[in-house]
Amino acid sequence: MTSCFARFVAIDWSGAKGSRHKGIAVALCEGGDAVPQLVAAPDGVWSRQAVADWLVGTARDAPALFGFDFSFAPPFVARGGYLPGNVVPQDGPAFWAYVDAICDDLDLGAASLLEVAHRRHFYFGKADGVKATFMHNRACEAHYNAGGGGKPSTVYDAIGAAQVAKASFAGMRLLHHVRPHVPVWPFDPIPVAGSLVVEIYTSIAARAAGRPKRRTKMRDLVALNDALVTLGSRPHAGVMPDDHGADAIVTAAWMRRAALQPDLWAPPALTPQIARTEGWTFGVN
């Protein structure tokens, strides 16, 4: 399979409150074996809105595959709805529009959805009851776990500043803003030409790069470059980036290779209903 993409971009995302986020890192690589490079934020530290604006502009320059490490939708199939008991849209893109409409948080944030608008669906601590009753997963996550990939986080777990819940709902606001310009797989089909946004899981990239399970973080240049070389990339020649930057760099290199694998674009368990409601993490097969 020949990739229709000229560039591969991995974004390590953040749902933290505020207008600038040190937890966001953007790495870009061209085809071939060039090492991915971190993209500097326009004002020194990325905002979510700046990522959205940069993505739309970059997508116009050359066909690019953009990967974000947040859940593109809450579980739907197993529960019969995103937020059972509440009247909300029944497909991914319409739900993104809903999230964007009810959240006025700074910089595409979505903390108010968890903390106020739909508080009862999220687990913040023992006062909410038994945690296990909140830990619902999407079909993709259940499939990944059953295959030995590990137990992924759920968007209903709201404990801690860095958990996936706020990041995912903030990400849904971003998807609503960029989708008029760039399609989002698998909610939209793969374009014959042009750019595309996919959901990624940085641990999948790290495992493909030879990192052992539960030790996917790279703390030094030796580990980072071993991972890059395993993925067919030239080594990183600069100073060691932080965790977010290292994850983005390795994931961009993995995306360049993974995009050439036809089976990753057609997972057997990905049904039309799942594609329309929950989406799928690129790389889970």
Brief sketch in words of this structure:
With 285 residues, this protein is α/β, with parallel strands linked by helices.
Approximate helicity band: 25-40%
* Regions with little confidence, pLDDT below 50 for 5+ residues: none
Q: How many E-type strands?
A: 5
The topology string of helices and strands comes to EEEHEHHHHEHHHH
Give the distance, in angstroms, between the N- and C-terminal Cα atoms.
17 Å
Indicate the proportion of strand residues. Answer: 5-15%
Compute the CA-based radius of gyration.
18 Å
| Widest sheet, order of strands | 3-2-1-4-5
Structure in words:
- This protein folds into two domains: 7-72 and 177-265; 92-175, no CATH class.
- Strands 3-2-1-4-5 form a five-stranded mixed sheet.
- With 285 residues, it is of the alpha/beta class.
- The chain has nine helices and five strands, in the order E-E-E-H-E-H-H-H-H-E-H-H-H-H.
- 33% of the residues lie in helices and 8% in strands.
